[in-house]
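Milestone 3.1: sequence recovery, worked example.
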């Protein structure tokens, strides 16, 4: 039987992907999971594997075409020598582009009607690029009405132009937006007024510079961070937490833990455990905002930011509240290893309800991280190290003691989470970490 190959959805907010290169041609015999083609989306570049073994009998879309998710792009099986879309050379990747290879789900689906191909990328700002990359429906409306999408200020995620934006724009008589001057011309003046504010030139004529395009991951990170700052009322509070008891328990158990479970015992499973318990006790921090509604998430899925040479990924530990220290250690180490090896699947990068980032591994004392939308809070872990602190003994006498300490900074969305809510949450995390109740480690010494 013939098997349909569809454009996969490589993330929650992704509605389409661009085929950058075909790795096979009509008539080729392929094995299951053999890479068929490469795609590029706002979140990730990936090789898409074959859902079945067989012969490539049809290729429906050329390299360079932008295709909606779940649309059929090729057929595997049946008779050879079927049809193929006219060949087109693959678009060369820019110098700074990095291919992030991810395992994609192989599932057949009925193909929606083909939509117009994406308009060519502009050489303008990231804002322009994100507006242009609107949904197939919006591009179809724009083509019918003769509208340049770049002239519309979008209200969707990352500034994308939505259907309602298009309708409002048409109803308003299609006003023309003031365009930014070309880069070299703009450099002649210190600042120019353009749509949405001032544009300050990045360089001046004659200045010695090297210009490289952003990678896909860096572009989406930049857009997502800007979107988050524009959306949430960011407030950060910092707690000083004593890790001495955790440090001692870990030191006693880590060797036997590694031997018994095949994975390292770092500080992170203790932190995940404490955070999961706190999220369960304080559901407002495990929520999202939808207009004027609060969406309380019943599941606790903790995203863990992983810094890579080519950007930042946030794989998700699902149902973290149901895992013990062993389960959390295995899940975290596995996700981090596969993130570095570019082997994460798209489902492993979405669905998080709360995020933890750990800049402390690079020596940072603490930070003020940006919220990962649509979440309402993110926890930043500072470096865990020995510090002199004031300790009070049973008789009430104060002394200077050496303790293993860390600063935890939580950034929260003040539209929903008040300072008291964040502090109650952080006190729950602090109480768990500073306790000596780690019975799970008793078998390891």
């Amino acid at each position: 039987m013939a098997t349909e190959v569809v454009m996969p959805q490589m993330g929650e907010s992704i509605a389409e992907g661009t085929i950058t290169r075909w790795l096979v041609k009509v008539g080729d015999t392929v094995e299951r999971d053999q890479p068929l083609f490469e795609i590029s989306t706002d979140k990730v570049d990936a090789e898409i594997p074959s859902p079945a073994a067989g012969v490539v009998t049809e290729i429906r879309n050329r390299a360079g075409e932008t295709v909606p998710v779940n649309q059929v792009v090729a057929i595997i099986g049946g008779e050879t020598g079927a049809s193929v879309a006219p060949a087109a050379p693959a678009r060369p990747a820019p110098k700074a582009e990095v291919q992030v290879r991810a395992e994609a789900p192989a599932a057949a689906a009925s193909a929606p009607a083909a939509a117009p191909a994406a308009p060519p990328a502009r050489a303008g700002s990231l804002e322009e690029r994100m507006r242009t990359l609107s949904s197939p429906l919006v591009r179809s409306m724009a083509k019918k009405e003769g509208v340049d999408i770049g002239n519309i200020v979008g209200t969707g995620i990352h500034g994308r132009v939505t259907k309602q934006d298009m309708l409002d724009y048409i109803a308003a008589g299609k006003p023309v937006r003031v365009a930014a001057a070309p880069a070299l011309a703009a450099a002649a003046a210190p600042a120019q007024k353009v749509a949405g504010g001032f544009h300050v030139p990045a360089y001046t004529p004659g200045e010695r510079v090297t210009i490289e395009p952003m990678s896909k991951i860096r572009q989406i990170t930049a857009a997502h961070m800007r979107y988050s700052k524009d959306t949430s009322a960011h407030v950060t509070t910092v707690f000083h937490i004593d890790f001495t008891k955790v440090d001692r328990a870990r030191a006693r158990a880590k060797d036997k833990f590694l031997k018994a479970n095949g994975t390292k015992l770092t500080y992170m499973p203790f932190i995940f455990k404490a955070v999961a318990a706190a999220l369960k006790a304080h559901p407002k921090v495990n929520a999202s905002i939808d207009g004027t509604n609060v969406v309380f998430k019943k599941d606790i899925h903790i995203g863990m930011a992983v810094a890579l040479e080519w950007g930042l990924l946030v794989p998700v530990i699902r149902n973290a509240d149901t895992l013990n220290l062993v389960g959390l250690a295995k899940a975290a180490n596995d996700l981090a290893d596969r993130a570095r090896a570019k082997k994460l699947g798209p489902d492993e990068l979405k669905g998080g309800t709360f995020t933890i980032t750990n800049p402390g591994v690079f020596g940072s004392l603490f930070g003020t991280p940006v919220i990962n939308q649509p979440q309402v809070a993110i926890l930043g872990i500072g470096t865990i190290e020995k510090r002199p602190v004031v300790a009070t003994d049973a008789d009430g006498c104060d002394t200077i003691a050496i303790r293993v300490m860390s600063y935890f900074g939580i950034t929260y969305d003040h539209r929903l989470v008040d300072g008291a809510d964040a502090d109650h949450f952080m006190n729950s995390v602090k109480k768990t970490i500073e306790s000596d109740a780690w019975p799970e480690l008793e078998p390891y010494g």
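The chain has three domains: 1-112, 126-219, 232-444. Residues 412 and 422 are 7 Å apart (CA to CA).
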